[in-house]
Write a structure and sequence with these properties.
Length: 291
């Protein structure tokens, strides 16, 4: 239960304003949805203006590092090269790569090629070749604030099948983003993403999804892309999370590498694509923090 606050007391968000001038109306809306049995975000997930400013600054760096990779990635480079680019550029901009040593992850970035769904570990032995599709997933810590985004890259001449998979994945994120509105639901995002994937004969990974982020690398809520419109957590202003569907050409089933404990692959060996953006819900829509 949230602690009740007097109307003239300082607001729980830390703004310094009186509660009645700040989050009083917000809390009344939250309570209306709670009474209806909906999943509502606890106060600790709602970011205040100072936190949003810090998260956005982190996001600027994260996007800049992704841009740097986009400028340099090509046939013949190794995933270890990508890792070095990410580390050096992130440090140059005064930040820290969030994946490095996170729960034992050994590198600064995730590089996932073709049938690798996510969490691919960079290696000097993995050379990008003509026709590969690769997801580069970059996460940044700047002054204690976290940002996270990934992009797909088509290396050289890619087959029409793979190119279409990448394009549909990109489009699904655009459709999902259009559903991020105050007092909507996370399920609204999932519905349009899974509908587009299924219309094109693809499947959506079920076990791995998006997540809250900002003050920690991974926060609540967990964001599914196979649920239904009007379900899952309420999209309240100040909620910050990632949209990052993983769409498979074949089965939705996946396997995690038993040796490294990280690399996730499609169970049937067919390609997978992912696109990730970080968003924050605003009073009148949403804002993309990193992309």
């Amino acid at each position: 239960m949230e602690i009740k606050i007097g109307r003239n007391d300082p607001c729980w968000c830390g703004s310094g304003k009186k509660y009645k001038k700040c989050h009083c109306d917000f809390d009344e809306i939250i309570e209306e949805h709670r009474v209806l049995g909906e999943i509502v975000p606890p106060r600790e997930l709602i970011k205040n203006k100072e936190q949003i400013k810090g998260i956005k600054e982190s996001g600027v760096i994260n996007t800049a590092v992704l841009d740097y990779v986009a400028e340099n990635i090509k046939v013949g480079c190794t995933t270890e090269d990508i890792d070095k680019w990410v580390y050096s550029k992130t440090v140059e901009l005064g930040a820290v790569p969030a994946p490095l040593n996170y729960e034992g992850f050994p590198k600064s970035v995730c590089t996932s090629i073709d049938n690798v769904v996510c969490h691919g570990i960079p290696s000097p032995d993995v050379v990008l070749k003509e026709g590969d599709i690769i997801n580069v997933d970059i996460s940044t810590i700047y002054k204690g604030y976290f940002s996270d985004a990934s992009r797909m890259f088509c290396i050289g001449n890619v087959s029409e099948e793979k190119r279409k998979l990448v394009e549909i994945t990109e489009k699904s994120v655009e459709l999902g983003l259009a559903q991020v509105k105050p007092w909507g639901h996370l399920g609204d995002i999932a519905q349009v993403i899974k509908d587009l994937a299924h219309e094109n004969g693809y499947t959506v990974v079920r076990e791995i999804g998006g997540h809250g982020i900002g003050l920690e690398f991974h926060e609540d809520p967990w964001v599914s892309y196979v649920t239904n419109k009007g379900t899952d957590m309420l999209l309240a202003p100040g909620l910050c999370f990632t949209i990052e569907p993983m769409i498979n050409m074949g089965t939705h089933r996946i396997n995690t590498d038993k040796e490294d404990g990280w690399t996730v692959r499609t169970a049937d060996g067919k390609p997978s694509a992912q696109r990730e953006i970080q968003v924050i819900v605003t009073d009148d829509g949403c804002e993309v923090i990193s992309h």
